Recover the amino acids of this structure.
């Protein structure tokens, strides 16, 4: 029986999923740049601020180990609709927060349901576009990082303006309330475009459905490279981006807008790199692990230079170059999972997200704890380029370990 997804234009299906990714990224941006505002409003310590900045990733970690198996069983569309409903509830909690506990609870809830959404959406996209995963995920991530270029300074400017006008908590509440409306539209549009009983798209056109027994597990130990590389990716990228605004304010005395601009500049670099990757991935390319190694190494080098830069402007330049350089890391990881581990990719996507979340959470907590002990933020954030160097070395070792199969 032909399902609705097969009848729907691929562009419409992809556009809905891309819009969902963009909305999730804007929520993440709002959480990242609102850190100093939360600290002022709720009198947070460095440790509590680190907990809030890593709170979303705590939620991602809590669910990612199992979400792939759930998606595999109930189908990606059912998971997508359930997760989007949970996100709306979590954002409502965040936008109405009046203290650390409520805020942290909402952020963790958002992380739980965002990870479920990402897992379902990635599984759907890899089923809609088999054999072109790196190109499609490059385009998707270019769009959501492109949204960061606009949203980060815009939200930062709004936070500055709301502080000057004495709007208090409404400064951070309104961006989250706006995203409730946007994600609600994504949920409605998804229900109109897709048949919610669809359960086979995650397996691709040629894959078999899962048996009623235990989920398939990749043979051998090669699959263990995926969560390890994902852990390095999370430690390298997400924990760094979470602390960019506080670092800029502490080191350069920047405003919320200028601090959030660092986030936007890095996002611009990442988005530009991934657009180019999407364009030039149409032809047969280098092995994903080779690209991953080069991307992680050059990105970590530029991040180290950004953290050592003596001026705000030089930091901006090196952050943009760093984002452009390591833009290939995530698309390569998605492509490796899809191409090398086939039908069980929803489970491995879950393990990958769990590893990224564990790294981002531990990185954000570690940076905050080190700052609490008197270490400068720039010194504490050096864990990011170190993780990138380890990621590059691991990708190279995996590439040399055995020839592609």
């Amino acid at each position: 029986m032909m399902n609705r997804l097969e009848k729907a234009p691929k562009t419409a299906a992809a556009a809905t999923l891309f819009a969902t990714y963009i909305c999730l990224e804007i929520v993440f941006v709002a959480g990242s740049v609102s850190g100093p505002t939360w600290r002022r409003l709720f009198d947070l310590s460095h440790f509590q601020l680190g907990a809030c900045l890593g709170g979303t990733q705590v939620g991602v970690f809590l669910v990612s180990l199992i979400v792939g198996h759930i998606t595999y069983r109930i189908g990606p569309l059912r998971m997508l609709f359930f997760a989007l409903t949970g996100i709306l509830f979590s954002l409502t909690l965040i936008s109405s927060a009046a203290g650390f506990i409520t805020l942290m609870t909402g952020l963790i809830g958002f992380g739980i349901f965002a990870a479920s959404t990402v897992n379902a959406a990635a599984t759907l996209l890899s089923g809609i576009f088999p054999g072109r995963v790196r190109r499609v995920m490059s385009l998707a991530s270019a769009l959501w990082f492109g949204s960061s270029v606009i949203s980060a300074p815009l939200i930062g400017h709004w936070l500055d303006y709301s502080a000057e006008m004495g709007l208090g908590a409404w400064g951070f509440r309104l961006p989250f309330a706006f995203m409730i409306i946007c994600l609600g539209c994504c949920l409605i549009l998804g229900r109109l475009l897709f048949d919610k009983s669809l359960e086979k798209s995650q397996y691709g056109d040629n894959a078999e459905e899962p048996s009623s027994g235990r989920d398939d597990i990749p043979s051998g130990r090669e699959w263990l490279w995926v969560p390890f590389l994902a852990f390095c990716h999370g430690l390298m990228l997400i924990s760094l981006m979470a602390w960019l605004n506080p670092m800029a304010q502490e080191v350069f005395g920047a405003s919320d807008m200028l601090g959030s601009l660092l986030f936007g500049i890095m996002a611009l670099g990442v988005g530009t790199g991934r657009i180019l990757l999407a364009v030039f991935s149409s032809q047969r390319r280098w092995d994903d692990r080779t690209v991953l190694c080069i991307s992680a190494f050059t990105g970590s080098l530029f991040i180290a230079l950004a953290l050592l830069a003596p001026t705000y402007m030089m930091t901006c330049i090196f952050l943009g170059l760093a984002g452009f350089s390591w833009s290939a890391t995530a698309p390569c990881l998605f492509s490796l999972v899809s191409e090398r581990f086939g039908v069980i990719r929803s489970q491995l996507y879950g393990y990958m997200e769990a590893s990224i979340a564990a790294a981002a959470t531990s990185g954000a907590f570690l940076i905050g704890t080190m700052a609490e002990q008197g270490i400068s933020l720039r010194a504490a954030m050096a864990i990011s380029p170190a993780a990138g160097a380890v990621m590059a070395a691991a990708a190279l070792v995996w590439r040399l370990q055995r020839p592609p199969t």
Observations:
- DSSP finds 18 helices and no strands in the chain.
- The domain at 12-203+221-400 is CATH 1.20.1250.20 (Growth Hormone; Chain: A;).
